[in-house]
Every structure is written in structure tokens, then in C-alpha cells.
Amino acid sequence: MAVFLVACSGKKTEYITALDQLKRTSDSVNFDLDHIAIDEVKALSEQSFGNLSQLKLVIANDTLDLDFARMLENYSLAHYDLETLEMEIKLCKEQNELEAKRMLLLKQDVESDAGDRAEYDKNIRFETRELTKIRNHSIELKRRFEKAKSAIEQFQPEIERYLTQNVPSTP
Asked: Which 3-state string (H, E, C) describes 132-152?
């Protein structure tokens, strides 16, 4: 009987340790997503939208230098990515919050020996897979934000220079 209790206790500790590690991973997702400033995403998106709108009016059927056209394409791609990032970040945060709640409930079940103990392994593996998807998505969102921000900041001066030179001033 003592051997069985030690084995169960060891498995319970293993489950709790695994769930604590998942909690730390979930916390790191929150940390990463919280450091993508939604206000900055909005500001960069609005700024690039304004410049792209002006460029459409100015360029019309004009022939562009190939390097400028490539730069403009990268700038446009960054703008369009910024437009979707805000919603994706919010959704990723919501998914992570739901996952954190499920993990907390599972940990409470394990600690109190509630629910189907035979399912603990399966449930922890499932939550690990789900959290891994969320974590990978948050890393991708962070990468996309940095890439879009870099492109906007890199090409902004050249686009503003182009607009200054090609937009007729109003009297």
C-alpha cells in the first residue's frame, strides 16, 4: 500500500510540475504580447495608410524608379500586415487567457484528486499542444510586428521626401 501511495504522489508532483511549467510559458506569452504596443501598431498603420493614400494620388500612371518601387512594395506589405496584427494580437491574448484558465482548473483537479485521474496525462499533453500553438503564434506576431515596424521606419523618410517633392503645395 505504501508503494502505491508513493507512486501516486510522485505522479501527482510530476503533473503539478508540468502544469507549473505550462503556466510559466503562458506568462511569457502574455509578456511578449504586452510588449507589442497596440497603440504603436495603430499609429504605424495610420501613418503608413496616410502616406500610401497620398502616394496613390501622386503616382497615378507615373513610372517609378525600380528601387523606389521595391521600397514602396515593402512599405505597402508592412502596412497591410500592421492592419491585421492588432486583431491577431487580441485573439492570441484571448486564447492564452482561456488556456491559462483551463490549466488552472486542471491543476486544481490534480491537487484535489478530482476528475478522472486516468485522464490527467492526456489532458496535460493536450494543454501542452494547445499552449505550444499559442506560443508559436505569439512569437510569429512579435516577429511580424518588428519586421513591419522596421520597414515603415526604414522607408518612411524616403516616402516623405518623395511626397514633398511631388505633391503640389496648396496656396
From this structure: HHHHHHHHHHHHHHHHHHHHH
